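REQUEST FORM: STRUCTURE PREDICTION
Request ID: SP-0412
Submitted by: Lab K.M.
Chain count: 1
Length (residues): 329
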Amino acid sequence: MDQHRLEFEKPIFELRRKIDELKALAKDKSINVDEEVSKLEAKIAEMRAEIYKELTPWQIFQIMRHPKRPRTLDYIERIFNGFSELHGDRGFGDDKALVGGTARLEDRPVMVLGLQKGKDTKENILRNFGMAQPDGYRKALRLMKLAEKFGLPVITFIDTMGAFPGIEGEERGVAEAIAKNLLEMARLKVPVIISVIGEGGSGGALGIGVGDRVLMMKYAMYSVISFEGCAAILWKDSKRASDAAQALKPTAGDLLSFKVIDEIIEEPAEGAHTDPDFAAGKLKEALIKNLDVLMRKPVEVLLKERYEKFRNMGMFKKTGAVLPDENPA
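STATUS: Completed
RESULT:
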C-alpha cells in the first residue's frame, strides 16, 4: 500500500486497509470473505469516482506534488528511443536540474530537454529540486540552437517550482538567461512542443516554455508564481497556499479555457504516479499527433502562428469602471 497518503484520499485508504485485514483473517481462519470484500471494493469505486469528479485546485496540487510522480527522465525513458544526454552550457558548467539530448520519437529524430526534480532527498540535492541555474537555461538554449541547425524538432518538459532564487543565480544573470530563451524560442525555425508534466512555476518554467503547442498533464499546475510564494506576498503567510491555489487559476482546465495551453493529457484517475506507463502512453500519442501536424507547416507559417499564439494571450475587456484614485468629470 502507498504510504504517501493524500489528505482527501484517507477514506479510500481506510477501506483498503479493511480489505487487507479481511483477507489476512480469511487466510488465517479459512473463512470466506469474498462477499464482504466485494462490497468494500464497490464502495471504494463509488467513493473514488465521487472524490476525483470535482477536485479543488489544492487537491490537484497535492497530487502534482506526490513524491512518486513521474519526472522528466521517467517520461523520456518511456516515450523516446536512443536518448543520448548532452551536457554543459559551454560557459560555466553542467546544471543537473536541466537535462537534455537527442532521441527518437518513433522513427523521427528530435531534441528533448526538461527540468528534472529528484525523487528523494539525495537526488533532489543533486538536481537542486528541479530549480535551474542560469547555466541550465543556457544549456537548454545551446541544445535548441543545435536542434535548429540540424532541423530537429524540439520537445521540452516543464516540472519546476521556478528558477533557482539564490544569489548565485543573480550573479550569473538568471533573468537575462530566461529572457534570451524567450526571445530565441519565439523564433526557432523548427517545431517546438512544450509539455507541462508537473509543476510549472514562474519564469523558471517559461525559460523552456515558448512553443507551437503547449500540452499539459491533467493534474499538472502552471502559474506565474508558486502558491507558497504568492501567499507569502499577498497575506504574509505561506500557510495560505491553498487560498493562492484557488485564486491563481493554475489547473489544466482553467488554462485551456484561457487558451494558455492547447491540450490536456489524460492521467490515471488517481494521478500519473499510480500508472506512469499509462500517463506516458497518452503523452506520447499527443506528441506524435501534434508533431505530425507541425512538421507539415512551412517555417514562415510556423513562426507567424507561434508569434500570434503568445501575442493573443492575456486579452482583457475595458468596462469603463472608475479607478479609486480617478476623479470623474
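NOTES: The domain at 65-311 is CATH 3.90.226.10 (2-enoyl-CoA Hydratase; Chain A, domain 1).
Reviewed by: T.R.
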